[in-house]
Amino acid sequence: MPETILKLQDVAIFQNENLILNNVTLEVKKGDFVYVIGKTGSGKSSFMKTLYGDIPLKQGYGSVVDFNLKSLEEKQIPFLRRKLGIVFQDFKLLSDRNINNNLKFVLKATGWTDTSKMDAKIEEVLDKVGMKTKGFKFPHELSGGEQQRIAIARALLNDPELILADEPTGNLDPQTSVEVMRVLQEINESGRTIIMATHDYALILKYPHKTLKCDNSKMFEVIQKAV
């Protein structure tokens, strides 16, 4: 039996005092790929933020990569995030340094000290996303799709058990979105678990996986044809 990476039971998600999603029950196993869809404001991002500790879980039971979200303390959040790879819509690359140094910054911040090990890890993750020759470029010298590949490489640095991709193709044109999606597919096929919030129904049809919809404060599974 694959191990459980994420388990939520009767979870309510609040943004400040506002109830965003209610009665969320979900189990995600190692190696799963799960889409989260829904209109803007339906709760996709709030759901993702709860998983990486940005929004506290006040109601229900939640466990992510063996961390209890209900009893998660502020000082534990960095340790939780080291077991997660988080990919955002807007890349969040540091503009004042090249790609290698962007990735080195993350490694140093998460406790790496050996320069040769850091260099080897950076080369490995850039190779995985097809960007091995771009390490000396600065973010502004790369296209949007290339920057998102770097963001995915950054998410892989600490061998995460779960990758959370929040609208990773939201700022990209359709062709580039497909290229980024292929990278995520390959990462998933190598055994990694991915949860991806998206607006992009064309991608969901092209690469079908389990799909959860946020609507009317609820989260429920939808069958692909009904999307």
TrEMBL record:
<protein>
    <submittedName>
        <fullName>Cell division ATP-binding protein FtsE</fullName>
    </submittedName>
</protein>
<dbReference type="Pfam" id="PF00005">
    <property type="entry name" value="ABC_tran"/>
</dbReference>
<dbReference type="InterPro" id="IPR027417">
    <property type="entry name" value="P-loop_NTPase"/>
</dbReference>
<dbReference type="InterPro" id="IPR015854">
    <property type="entry name" value="ABC_transpr_LolD-like"/>
</dbReference>
<keyword id="KW-0547">Nucleotide-binding</keyword>
<dbReference type="InterPro" id="IPR003593">
    <property type="entry name" value="AAA+_ATPase"/>
</dbReference>
<keyword id="KW-0067">ATP-binding</keyword>
<keyword id="KW-0132">Cell division</keyword>
<dbReference type="InterPro" id="IPR017871">
    <property type="entry name" value="ABC_transporter-like_CS"/>
</dbReference>
<keyword id="KW-0131">Cell cycle</keyword>
<dbReference type="GO" id="GO:0051301">
    <property type="term" value="P:cell division"/>
</dbReference>
<dbReference type="GO" id="GO:0005524">
    <property type="term" value="F:ATP binding"/>
</dbReference>
<dbReference type="InterPro" id="IPR003439">
    <property type="entry name" value="ABC_transporter-like_ATP-bd"/>
</dbReference>
<feature type="domain" description="ABC transporter">
    <location>
        <begin position="6"/>
        <end position="226"/>
    </location>
</feature>
